[in-house]
Amino acid sequence: MGTISLEHSDRLYWLGRYTERFFTTIKALGRQFDKMIGTAHSYTDYLDCFGLPDTYMDNKDFIRSLLFDENNAHSAAYSLERAYDNGIVLREEISTDSLSFLQMAKDTLTKAGQSDNVRLALLPLEDIIYSFWGSINEHIYDDEIRNIIYIGKTLERLDLYIRMKYPFGIVEKEFIRLMKNLNRVPKGTPYRYSTKYLSDLVEILGTEEDYKRESDKAIDSLGHLFETTEVFA
Fold it and tell me: What's the pLDDT at 230?
């Protein structure tokens, strides 16, 4: 198939990033529920991972904002809305079926925000997002389209895992996955990664010692790996 435009490449990339950001944020906040039982302001370790100030009144305010506030750029709701916005434009590329799973996730998140048992109401979201990725694989036949989405997905997961200080073994596996996705992109695509920043990542993530010592540099290199316009971010 013909090479897709740079604009659509950006949208595919950010569709992958924002969908994964939503998914990983939901899972991370789910773990916060246990930490917050009987402890005031027990979420500061989460905020520290992202360099965010504590502007929340209490645990409930933190959870409500990070889950449901579309005006909070660090919330699950914000990421899901941005993923859906890109998905609408890319309906022909990803299929209406795939887009419907993002709509289903939006509906489920809205209902969870109105529920007396938020944690229980959030449980279906993991399966919905897994279904979205399954639908992507089922309906996309263009390798370039699929791989740009998956590059965004794996890059975002790697970024979040590093920020949240995941063990080196898990981070290393995600980096290997990202490298495989980068190698699968057709040579003719205009959407290319920076070899300089990729070389930096290879060096930093080569050993556990380097990973622990230079995690901030790894995050910076990931941020520059694709110098996208970020118009759709």
Answer: 47
Distance in angstroms (rounded) separating the CA atoms of residues 193 and 55? 36
Provide the strand spans (E) within the chain: none
Other C-beta atoms closer than 10 Å to the C-beta of 64 total 16
Residues in the chain: 233
Is the pLDDT score of 76 beyond 80? Answer: yes
Residue 218 has pLDDT above 70, yes or no: yes
- The C-alpha R_g of the chain, in whole angstroms, comes to 18
Q: Which residue has the higher pLDDT, 166 or 8?
A: 166
The CA distances from residue 25 to 12, 100, 191, 193, 197, in Å, are 20, 21, 27, 26, 26
**Cα–Cα distance between 211 and 216 in angstroms, integer?**
9
Q: Find, among 189, 199, 206, the residue nearest to 221 by Cα.
A: 199
Give 144-181 as a 3 state SS string: HHHHHHHHHHHHHHHHHHHHCCCCHHHHHHHHHHHHHH
Judge whether residue 66 has pLDDT over 80: yes
Rounded to the nearest integer, the mean pLDDT of the chain is 91
Contacts 24+ apart (CB under 8 A), 101-107: 101/128, 101/129, 101/131, 101/132, 101/135, 102/19, 102/132, 104/128, 105/22, 105/80, 105/129, 105/132, 106/80, 106/81
Shortest CA distance to 19 belongs to which of 92, 111, 126?
126
How far apart are the C-alpha atoms of 37 and 26, rounded to whole Å? 18
